[in-house]
Structures are given as C-alpha cells and as structure tokens.
Amino acid sequence: MQVFLPFQSVLEYSKMNYKLTKLTNGLRVLTVPMVQSESATLTIWVKTGSRNEDKKVNGISHFLEHMVFKGSKKRPTAKAISEVVDSIGGEFNAATSKDWMNFYIKARNAHLATACDVLSDMVINPLLQEEEIEREKGTIIQEIAMYEDTPVMKIGDVFEELAFEGNPLGWDTAGTKSSVKRIVKNDILSYRKKYYGYPNILISVAGGVTEKDVVELVKKNFQSPITLAEPDPALRDNFKNSQTKPRVKLKTKKTDQSHFILGFMGDGRNYENRYAQGVLATILGGGMSSRLFIEVRERRGLAYAVKTGIERFQETGYMSTYVGTDPKKVDEAISVVLEEYYKIRNSNIEIQNSELTKAKEYLKGHLALALEDTSCVNSFFAEQALFLPEILTPEEVFKKVDQVKLENVYAEARRLFTPSRLNLAVIGPYQDEEKFVKLLK
C-alpha cells in the first residue's frame, strides 16, 4: 500500500539548506548540514562523462572511475585504500554517467577527516600503473558482458542509442570491448588533464557537519591549483533532435521475456515546465495505482514490471516507459502503453483532480523519503550546483510541484506525445524490426 506524506509533514522534515563556497583555486565546496545525522557523505563530482569522449576510446571515463581505486600516492594499492575505509566503518564507491562522474565515502561524522584524506588522494593522485590498467581491462570487459547478458539492464542503453543516434549521448557509458582494449595510460592522462581541473570539480558534503569544518578540510586536502586545458570543456557536442517520424531499434536475443522501452523525446534539465512533466510521468506510470500499472499489470496481466520516468541531460531528455513481458504478448503490451499515452494527450479519459493531487503527493513523498539518506541529499543539491543556474531547496521544489495545474499537464502531453518524437527499443527473440514500426503507426 502506498502511503503519502501530508505536505506540511514533508516540509517539517525537509527543512534543510546549503552553503556553496568557492575557494581561491577555483574549487567549489557544497555543504548541507543535517543536524540530527550521525554520518556524513563526502563526494567528489567531476563535470564530465561519456558524452565528452572520443569514439576510439569510448568508455574512458568509466575506466578512470575504476582506476582511482587501484592505488594512490599515499596508499599505493587497492588493499591499502580499502583497509583505511574499512577501519573507519565507512563505505565507498563511484559512478559514471553521460555527463558527470562522482566518487564518495560515507562514514561517521567523527571520521570525516580520514575520509577526505583518502578520497582526495585517490581522485587527485591516482597512480595509474600500466600493469593495473591492462589487468582492469579484463574486469571492465566482463562488466560489459554482464550487461549484455542482462536485458533488463541493457535495454536503457539500446533506447538511448536510438534516441541520440549520431551523438555521444547515445554511446554506452562503459564503452565497447574493442574501445576498452585500445585505452592506454596516455589516453587516461590526456583525459584527466582536459577535464579534472578544479573549476570543473565540486566537493559536496551532507550530514552532521558544519560549513566551517568542511571548508577547512577541503582547503587542507585540495591545495594545489589545477587549471583546465580548455576554458569550458563540460559540453563538447550539443545534441539537436532532428527526428521527424517514429523510430524502432530491435536487438535480437533469445530470451524468456521481452523487454522494451517506449518513449518520447523531451527537454533538458532546466526546462521551465519540468515539474508538470514530472506529474505527467507519475500519472502514467509512477506507482502501483498509476494508469499504466493498473492497465498493463493488474487488468491484463501482461507484465510484472511497469515503470514510467524521465531522463534529462543539459540540453535534451526523454519520457519513457519500461515493460518486461511475454514474447508472445509484446505487440499487445506496446499497443496498450502507447494507447495510455495518447489517451492523456487526446483527453479521452480526463485526469481527475484527485489523480493530480495523488501524483503531486507521490513526488513530494518520495523525495522526502530519499532525503533521509545523506548520499541522496548530496546528489539532490550537487547535481543542481553542477548543471543549473540556481539551486532549489526541497521546500522550493515542493512548492513548484504544488503549483502544477491540470492545464499544464495537458499542455505537456499534447506537446510531447506526437509520432515525430516517438522511439521504441526492444530486446527479444524477434527478427523482423518492421513489425514494430507498423505497431507505432
């Protein structure tokens, strides 16, 4: 059963603010104090990702993510690094996306100084030993193979390859087996020189900390000024959507379940009506009482997993629905999903005020629950600091959501849900891509 938090309760819980400081060396420090928290998450964000790569060495961002754990100036082996983090009871990891990378340690507040010392040394002073680079190629190739053998994980890559065809946004973040094999130490050094300058890096800390303590730790551990080889390398290849008709991409694979993502091209991170789009996606497939969940799973029994969401990059994005279904019923499932999108666009089944209210409370409640975790708080504030002209607090986001009206939702549905924006990616035991093209028509 879904429980929705009253708006006032959400506000009372999420009254948190941030402090953003810029140091003389160009490094920015974002602090989000959470007075009651016994832990803190320290994250180093770098404003780059796979969209800034050359095709020849596609996957180099992700490769570099792996290499920082293999040894640093102070701790020359992976074991030496992990022993320190284990000794403070912390957890650490990293992630690479299309346009950002991050590295984090989450630990008790009392151990933040150790966390900062370890993480800064890993990211700023990795050894990048050639024998480790060669060894890690095998690990990453096996990671790529794992995704290839797991359609539910791979289908997103197939959809983005179709949606962003001809642009680095459509490339796999991990790269390909051949591109990973080509990467050498000089490639990694060149990439770091180009993107790992302090003006391109953000340090964020959320938890039981103070701005003063955080800034002092950062100054101590990030002293040397680093400049970028290029003035503003954060967005190398702008994407311009030139699509004029529905498109399909089929990945033929023998599977017991077919996986598909059906979606419409949308807008970037700073789109002014993004909150109306969020409400629209929630009404469609944002919970167990959403239209698609009820129609696809509960009424027809076509799928176990049904989910609608929005993905945004700086200048573009998309709204899409994922479904896993019986290969014999994929045609029906696709038709039902598309029909539900068009029902809202054409106002065939009107959105009730109660449905609108439920969607808003769903969005606010899920954000409030996420903000119980210091790493999620880090992401909430830091991604805004990296990409948006202003940072909104949770309270400000809740107000934006509450201001969404029915006419705003309908306006976005009419604008987005058109054949010229429609894309479909399918993984399953099929040979005929044309049959899916006909379905969209």
Short description:
With 441 residues, the protein is an alpha+beta fold.
Write the layout of secondary structure elements.
Blueprint: H1 7-13, E1 19-22, E2 28-33, E3 39-46, H2 60-67, H3 78-87, E4 91-96, E5 101-108, H4 112-124, H5 130-148, H6 151-163, H7 177-182, H8 185-195, E6 201-207, H9 211-221, E7 247-252, E8 258-265, H10 274-285, H11 291-299, E9 303-312, E10 317-325, H12 330-345, H13 353-370, H14 374-387, H15 394-402, H16 406-416, E11 422-428, H17 434-440
Parallel strand pairs: 2-6, 7-11
Antiparallel strand pairs: 1-2, 3-5, 3-6, 4-5, 8-10, 8-11, 9-10
Spell out the key features of this protein.
17 helices; five-stranded mixed β-sheet; 441 residues; disordered N terminus; alpha+beta; six-stranded mixed β-sheet; Cytochrome Bc1 Complex, Chain A, domain 1
Strand content: 15-25%
Number of helices: 17
Mean pLDDT: 94
Counting copies of identical and different chains, the oligomeric state is single chain
Strand order of the largest sheet: 1-2-6-3-5-4
CATH superfamily of the largest domain: Metalloenzyme, LuxS/M16 peptidase-like
Helix/strand-derived category reads: alpha+beta
What does this structure look like?
- The structure is a single chain.
- This protein is α+β, with helices and mostly antiparallel strands.
- It folds into two domains: 205 residues, Cytochrome Bc1 Complex, Chain A, domain 1; 194 residues, Metalloenzyme, LuxS/M16 peptidase-like (Cytochrome Bc1 Complex, Chain A, domain 1).
- Helix content is 44%, strand content 18%.
- It contains 17 helices and eleven strands.
- The strands form two sheets. The chain has a six-stranded mixed β-sheet with strand order 1-2-6-3-5-4, sandwiched between helices.
- β9 and β10 form a beta hairpin.
- α10 packs across α13, α10 crosses α16 and α12 packs across α16.
- The longest helix is centred in the first third of the chain and has 19 residues.
- The protein is globular.
- 43% of the residues are buried.
